[in-house]
Design goal:
Layout lengths: L1 E9 L2 H31 L7 H6 L1 H7 L9 H23 L17 E4 L6 E4 L7 E5 L3 E6 L7 E10 L2 E9 L12 E6 L3 E5 L4 E3 L3 H4 L1 H12 L11 H35 L2 E5 L3 H4 L6 E2 L7 E2 L3 H14 L1 H15 L2 E5 L24 E3 L6 E3 H19 L3
Parallel strand pairs: 8-11, 11-14
Antiparallel strand pairs: 1-5, 1-7, 2-6, 3-4, 4-5, 6-7, 8-9, 9-10, 12-13, 15-16
């Protein structure tokens, strides 16, 4: 089983400078490799440059520029070139599937925040002695950096990554660990229905409130972004101290909202995993749900368009993104796997329109957002609870049809 650990690092002032230079030089390597691929395709009879060719040039690049490229780990530079290769692989995959291609772009220094080390001990070293209260991680060209290890690392460390988030530095470990002991069986099963007014409703009639972290921080974000907009657009090296503080203020607010969503998702998922052996949820296509509505051309007036509800849809999209359904479901599956629980995704169609008492399906069964009233048998309940009940039934049918 592969698991990831993320710890806050406590670098000294000199180590912070060295870490920033490491990101800058890896960003330069990434952009140079991208430029080589662009030039080869445009000017050398549409020649494709592969990862193997660029990796073979690393030795020469390091010898020509020992002060910048030669001081860092060779394997981490190979990982940066693989990162570019994956970006091109995804680009060609999107072309074949008919999606928007999205050609790989050059990265600015502010948009290149991670350096990967493919193997612990090769250019890096994770040092976590149980008897030593201070944990350190070593990086070539930087030194031994103190780490705030808030929980033990279980398993064998495979890869190490450095990540910058604003003014903070983190180390991310990928660990291969044995399958943990499953939690004791509770004999409970549950279906959950994701929503906007409530974050989720379960088949037992319980609800989890939607915290709406983004909406609560909207006023502060608006004020911070307005303050930032008063500064003229200038190059990064020409920015004043006040400009840099305004940029940092906006970034800090966004980061706080993201961390609040993660905290809520972890706590909610952990509660479900501890209480239930089987969890069924809707197989939501979130990317499709937050898409913009198609424009409606006015047939009577060429060049003009009819109202298509774009404003209302934008508000709904913002609420869906603020809820963080995708992050929550990813965390739920990971925690369930570690705890030995079973999680099943089912088709969400008509789950809130089907009567759990008689099985009648009709749009009229849900007269309002919260109320469910079956027009056939008269059954009434909360619409989200009805959806969760139907999700649970569909999940149990799927589980019984595909026994492990």
């Amino acid at each position: 089983m592969i698991r990831a650990y993320k710890f806050l690092m406590r670098p000294t002032v000199g180590q912070q400078v060295a870490l920033g230079e490491m990101l800058r030089d890896h960003c330069s390597l990434y952009n140079g490799a991208l430029q080589e691929r662009r030039d080869a395709w445009r000017h050398v009879s549409k020649t494709s440059v592969k990862y193997g060719q660029q990796s073979a040039q690393l030795k020469e690049i390091r010898a020509l520029d020992p002060d910048r490229q030669g001081r860092w780990s060779f394997s981490s530079q190979q990982a940066t070139l693989r990162r570019l290769d994956k970006a091109f692989a995804a680009f060609f995959r999107r072309i074949k599937s008919g999606e928007t291609p999205g050609y790989p772009r050059f990265r600015g220094v502010n948009w290149f925040d991670t350096v990967d080390f493919p193997k612990d001990g090769d250019g890096c070293g994770w040092d976590a002695t149980p008897q030593d209260p201070v944990t350190r991680v070593r990086f070539q060209g930087v030194g031994h950096v103190k780490v705030n290890r808030h929980r033990p690392v279980v398993g064998e460390v495979k890869t190490v990554s450095v990540k910058r988030e604003g003014r903070h530095w983190y180390v991310v470990l990928t660990v291969e660990r044995p399958q943990p002991e499953p939690l004791p069986a509770t004999g409970s099963v549950v279906g959950i229905d994701m929503g906007i007014s409530n974050f989720l409703a379960d088949s037992g009639g319980g609800f989890v409130e939607n915290p709406r972290h983004g909406r609560r921080a909207a006023a502060k974000l608006e004020a911070a972004q307005q303050a930032l907009s008063r500064f003229p657009r200038v190059r990064r090296d020409k920015r004043t101290a006040n400009h840099r503080r305004a940029v940092q203020r906006v970034a800090d607010l966004h980061r706080k909202v993201r961390r609040q969503r993660l905290d809520h998702a972890h706590k909610t998922a952990l509660g479900l995993v501890r209480e239930h052996d089987f969890i069924a949820h809707e197989d939501l296509k979130i990317r499709n749900m937050v898409g913009a509505p198609a424009p409606k051309p006015d047939p009577e007036t060429p060049g003009s368009f009819l109202p298509n509800g774009a404003s209302a849809k934008a508000g709904l999209n913002h609420s869906i993104s603020d809820a963080g359904w995708g992050v929550f479901l990813t965390i739920l599956h990971a925690k369930a796997e570690s705890a030995g629980r079973e999680v099943v995704a089912v088709d969400p169609r008509n789950t809130s329109r089907t009567c759990p008492a008689c099985g009648h399906v009709a749009k009229e069964n849900r007269p309002t957002q919260e109320k469910f009233h079956c027009v056939s048998c008269g059954h009434t309940a909360h619409a989200d609870t009805v959806g969760a009940l139907n999700v649970l039934r569909a999940g149990l049918v799927r589980r019984d049809a595909n026994p492990a």
